[in-house]
Amino acid sequence: METERVTEHEKPAVSSTTDPTHPAPSGDAPTGAGEQPAGREREGAPPRPRPHPPQPGDAAERAVAEPTAEDDALSERSERERRGGDRLRFVGAATRRIARGVDLDETVLGLCRASVPAYSDAILVYLRDPLPVGDERPTGPFMLRLRRSDRIPEDPLSAQALQAAQTSAGLAAPEAAGHPADAGYQGRAAAEAAGLSLGMAAGMAAGAAGTAAAQLAEVRAGGPLAEVLRGVRPVFADSPAASAALPELLGPERDVPGGHRAILAPLRGRRRVIGAAVFLRRPDRPAFEPDDLLIAAQLATHTALGVDKAVLYGREAYIADELQRTMLPDELPQPTGVTLASRYLPAAETARVGGDWYDAIPLPGSRVALVVGDVMGHSMTSAAIMGQLRTTAQTLAGLDLPPQEVLHHLDEQAQRLGSDRMATCLYAVYDPVAHRIVIANAGHPPPVMLHRSGRAEVLRIPAGAPIGVGGVDFEAVELDAPAGATLLFYTDGLVESRQRDVWTGIEHLREKLAATARLTRPGASAPLEPLCDEVLDIVGPGDRDDDIALLAARFDGIAPSDVAYWFLDPRAQTARQARRLARRALTRWGLEELSDSVELLVSEIVTNAVRYAERPITLRLLRTDTLRCEVGDDVPQLPRLRQARATDEGGRGLYLVNRLARRWGATRLSTGKVVWFELPVPDAGPDPEPEL
Hints:
InterPro entries: Bact_Sigma-Reg, GAF-like_dom_sf, HATPase_C_sf, HATPase_dom, PPM-type-like_dom_sf, PPM-type_phosphatase-like_dom. The protein is of the alpha+beta class and 692 residues long. The protein has helices at 2-18, 59-65, 69-99, 104-115, 159-169, 183-193, 198-207, 224-231, 240-250, 290-327, 380-398, 403-417, 502-517, 528-536, 574-589, 595-612, 653-660; strands at residues 122-128, 143-151, 216-218, 235-236, 262-268, 273-280, 338-345, 355-362, 368-375, 423-431, 436-442, 448-450, 456-458, 476-480, 486-490, 548-555, 563-568, 617-623, 626-633, 663-669, 672-680. A six-stranded antiparallel β-sheet has the order 3-2-1-6-5-4, with helices on both faces. The protein has a five-stranded antiparallel β-sheet with strand order 7-16-15-12-13, with helices on one face. A five-stranded antiparallel β-sheet has the order 8-9-10-11-14, covered by helices on one side. The radius of gyration is 46 Å and the shape is elongated. It starts with a helix and ends in a 12-residue tail after the last strand.
């Protein structure tokens, strides 16, 4: 039994040692705080000591209340790491924002928006004027012009808004950065310690970013500003170099914040210094820290590289635009019997260079060749190929080849330029005398004809293969070209986009032309220039994926009563016969006063044709706003104007033509040549009064 008592006595002893503040786990209720159950304490055993909570001032309490030096070091290191991570996140976000800029203004704006208010309260960005491009060596004095400035509005940000702006940018708020909550007081104290009052510092931060700062500053060779820019590294305003460089940059009348409230950061591109940035902070905000110089260096470096990229991109885009526009006609000719109008719109900014072109080429016989084409791709190469194909088309048109033959030779030329040089082209020849048009197509969208009645139709023309495919034949069709009708040539940029396919766009274009024609009075043709503007309205704001070339031709034609045409056999009497026929036509048209000049010039040209021709020659007179005479023969050699010597028997005919005619020329045809001249038609006087 004694053994049982010892065992029962030891159980509460173990339990009380494990947790002295709680009762033993048993079914009996405790008799009192810290007492053993009745009947279980051995007789004569000394009372067990009761534990008590530590009193104030004990060593245990002091160990908990007072952190050790090791804890302080760990806390400081953790705070530095957190602030370093915030700076890295800010630099990453800021550089991404700067890199999004494509042109110069977007790049500088990205720097300003990334810096204010997350990093500074105001910023001034100066760039070299003019900015050198690539390897260009700057000439003249080194001038810096204020390109852009930004600042916090005059009403200061609330603590919550400023903290939100800094947090979103990855920077810590003043309290989180290890500064007391009353950061504004410390900022005022720092400003006053630097000899700068609160009002003066705030005025610098707000005014320096406005018009008060110098707009243009000259960097003197060997001066303090030149030394800072040559050093490349950002410096605080209180450094010896920056204290003299900032007044030179901002102007001597400007008060520059002292201490660490201003940073001057040079902007160095790939080859040279191209500008400078000034970061400013108000007195009610903590001053810059030494680590902020690293942030300024990163911002300056990425901005300078972005400016270099933007300048190069701008120069390339300018060269490409000029190249493309110089390859397009400056102005369209106004041949007899047809009225022309055109439009050209470059593509969007991301693909502004293309290979679309149009042309109108006068041909013999008052005809005109109408051309529109589109080289595949958007690059300077596309623009260069477009220029070569346009020049080739002009040369082929001068040979008076049929449209299908012109496309065949263009296809061969494209293959000579390269295996991947492909283009679409539409070539048409309009004859105002016959009121007919011959069209050949090489994979281009079909033209749309708007009749005088207001009906618009898409012409059915064989599509053909694009130029550059090789080994294909092109087919030409001949269609009526009634007087008063308008034929519209265009490139696929007008009718095709990411929102619609080509044929949907063509149908939309046809409906637009018909709707525009209904706005004009019945029986009248819509004016060409407003018609072109209305057609371009079908292109939505987001549809400019490709450049657009547009060529509109209004067929006026030449009435049969204004045309005189003869075939003459090459005989010795032909010159006399030609003079008689010309005089008779002029009499019928009421142009007797031109008879002497016309007879002389016709006689000289016909005599030269009869001398070498073997087949009948042609003589045609056209009366429009000018009087045009054309003499054709089967000899391909073109006459050349030369100065006849005193002993020469001939060689003076073309000299007379050159002196008497307003214009003249000679064009080679597939069957020979045509020599033509034009004379001005005298103004018609008032109608004679009827005889009484």
